[in-house]
Amino acid sequence: MFLIQSVIRNHKVKIQSVLKSHTVKMTIINQIAKYHKVSHVIFDMDGLLLETEQIYEKIIRDLAASYGKPYPWEVRMRILGTTERRTCEIAVAELGLPCTVDEFQKQFSQSCLDNLGNCNLMNGAERIVRHFYNNNVPFCLATSSSQESVVVKTANYPALFKLFHHKVCGSTDPDVKQGKPAPDIFLVACQRFPGNIKPEDCLVFEDAPNGCRAAKLAGMQVVMVPDSHVTEKQKEDATVVLKNLLHFKPEEFGLPPFADINEE
Ligand SMILES: [Mg+2]
Description:
This is Pseudouridine-5'-phosphatase. GO terms for molecular function: phosphatase activity. By secondary structure, this protein is of the alpha/beta class. Helices cover 45% and strands 9% of the residues. It has helices spanning 2-33, 53-66, 73-79, 84-95, 101-115, 125-134, 147-153, 158-161, 184-191, 209-217; strands spanning 40-43, 139-143, 167-169, 202-206, 221-224, 240-241. The longest helix is centred in the N-terminal third of the chain and has 32 residues, at 2-33. Bound molecules: magnesium ion (MG).
């Protein structure tokens, strides 16, 4: 009798173990099936890896105030993710500033160089970049900023930013004809990876609605880590929306999972 009970108990444990293992496998498979598998990653920079958007916001707000004008959130959302030239065009037109775009851009560029050198990394930025590097997932940068501006903003993090395979700087790259929300920058970033990499092989990380639209138009999936002011409608181009980069689950896109535990 004791022997029979023991056999039944062992059998139950084995069945539970198999079921548990099967559940884990099915969960992973379902997660992978959730999104199209990718092999390459493209990062936006401002507001995604670097905490620069608040600095930009202050720069434009202060410049607008010097002309006696406010800087409403609706205009900021239109500016977010655009090239420096487009940022200045929108600011002058939408804020009704009594100056030319060239005059505004001169002040804007100088203020950027003066203020952007001491920006912080966004939450989880270093972890995710090093994770892809350590796991041989090719990744690059696709920023609307100029090359000069990228040098200033990344000056405090040389070891991290040298890990990128290449950097596309939308404001100064001759191959980027139109800034975000046009798809040009992401298509150029994709083409500069070695091999015949297709847009659908690339996963974009973005914070701005303009960037998400650009990625979608490029035929890429996009992970959005939005500013708290971004509306639900402005998130509609995102494949997935995260609170911060620490919440990303690489295995959902067929990429190697993090070895550590996701944090809040
Ligand atoms: Mg951005």
